[in-house]
Amino acid sequence: MNSLKNSLKTIFSEDGGLFSLPGYEFRPQQLKMAEAIADALLGKRHLLIEAPTGVGKSLAYLVPAILFAKKENRKAIVSTHTKNLQEQLLKKDLAVVRSLLNEPFDAVVFKGRGNYLCTTRLRNALRQQQLFDNAELDELQRIKKWSLQSTDGDLDELPFSPSQNVRQQVCSEKGACSPKTCAPDCFFQKARSRARTADLVIMNHALFFTLFAMQESEEFFIFKNDFVIFDEAHTLEQVAGTAVGKSISHSQVLFAIHRLYNPRTKKGLFARLKTTRFRKLCEKAEDAANSFFDKIGAAAEGLAGRSNTVRVRAPFIVDDTVTKSLRELRSAVKELQDDKRTKLAKMDLAAADRLIWEAEILIQEFLGQPDRSLTYWVELSGRRFPKVYLRTAPTSVAERIGSKLFKDGTSVIMTGATLSVGGSMAYFQNRMGASDVESLLLDSPFDYLRQMRLTITSDIPSPDRDGYESALPEFLYRSLIRSQGKALVLFTNTRLMRASAEILRSRIEAEGYTLLVQSEGRGRHQLLEQFKADVHSILFGLDSFWMGVDVPGEALEHVIITKLPFSVPAHPLVESRMEMIVQRGGDAFLDYTLPEAVLKFKQGVGRLIRSRTDRGLITILDSRIVTKSYGRSFLQSLPSCPIEVMRWDGTIEELYDDGVTQTYTA
After folding, report:
1. Is-contact 4 38, C-beta < 8 A?
2. Which of 407, 436, 399 lies closest to 217 in space, CA to CA?
3. Are the C-beta atoms of 35 and 13 separated by less than 8 Å?
4. pLDDT by residue (tens digit) across 198-252?
5. Calpha distance 455→95 (Å, rounded)
6. Model-level pTM?
7. Most Cβ neighbours (<10 Å): which of 87, 399, 434, 631?
8. CB-based contacts of 248, cutoff 8 Å, min separation 6
9. How far apart are CA 297 and CA 80, in angstroms?
């Protein structure tokens, strides 16, 4: 124990090795976090840590995790939500850790098998040209050429985007890619082998919980002797529920059938069989699938109103008219697998059989609803709803996952910048099934009294009353002029964002500022890069801009929150979770809606101050923060900083702790 703690002190203390490196400065919160993680690992305990921006949490968990893994011959898993953080860990933070530690360690990023090229499947695909058209055959040749130069076979790194059919035929797939069937150069098998021997494995939350759900052993999570650290833990309930849940779509079923034979393209494994019986079974299964999903779509659309998600509360929203055809198709595949004379590759038949079997089971489970702890819903997408998805997820992640995750004999560490509500982790603990888990709330290394000012508009009409939408553009304009642009404006509603942009664009551009609006043809990354490059630009953004946006410096000196981010309980999963709270005697608003909004609000505010040199203004254009009793929960979630009240006539009152106010005109 002492040796690990001493090692941390030599790295993170005020005269430690980390702060001899350029660009790093001592932060007591970082040392406290590293020591708390070390104590939890040594004691085989679980720990939740809120580490505000600027603490340097990545290094604070990487160093003790690697030291402990090496010392105890354990495997550290670090799970993140975003690819950006994975790349930061691998390309930046781990390089720093290597410079600080005296012993070498092996760290790898591990992705889901569908991300990797299976060279055995690629060679099989090149031999079965009847499965592809000329454009797809060209793509296969390009993939082969790329594979000879690639070091990890990550298909996301291809210099082009192959068709779905090509990618599905060459990526690693369960049943078709295994240590027994694959050549030594298979990229997935090599990646899995590296992950098994590495000291540190980095993956995303979705993969972790997908693999965790399949793990039957109670002794470890994914790898023998492992422990796990979750960063960006505020996303865990959502991601874990989706990963543990199940989904099947119309297009997935058709893809499984078309792998055997596509009546339109005349391609597939059955294309060159002499007998037409097998191809007719595919045509029959396709007709049945089309009819079934048409009926599902029509039934859901009748219930949906204006929503594209429809909760299914009772079994058999329609009759099962498809799984019989799928079983007949599987019987035909089995017949060919048992036929020693067939020239079809048994591995490809097995993979096709598995896809059809999964479709059959998932449809049966969705229609029958055998598990009442799950929420079932239909999702419709595309113009006039041509795409239909059947989805399920656990209503309570805490009950489904909590006890299995927070088990004895190992450690789960969860950390993030926004986990607490009103100075307590109780809400997050309850949602994750971690009520008895120790928590640590670190203070911020930033001086918010000096770096940030909060402006509240007290007399703008409430968003739930007439007049708000017509008043918002004027308040927005006055707020934007105060900071000369340099602003991120966060919306909760696409229609209101577009309407505000249309009203304000000419006035904003007349002031010499550039207005960037999400969903106007440019991707999120492109918008952010343009926003950073033009210091007087203004960015209007929706949900994805409330978190994960890092724009330090002059380009972002003002964050405007147009509306407190209460979510409308339109999604079936949210609706069922709120119903569960009420059924158990709770208050759905106070116990779910409000804390969820507070956490998202903290995420939005957190976009402003990203370094000790940043300065800026937070403006809240929602008067409910001062007129409603629940507004206190939002204000209490913010760090202490000067507060001012802006009024319609342009006057601003500065509020001080001693009760003295100073009024001036903006």
Report:
1. yes
2. 407
3. no
4. 999 999 999 999 999 988 778 899 999 999 999 999 999 999 998 889 999 999 9
5. 41
6. 0.91
7. 434
8. 358, 359, 362, 363, 366, 389, 390
9. 35
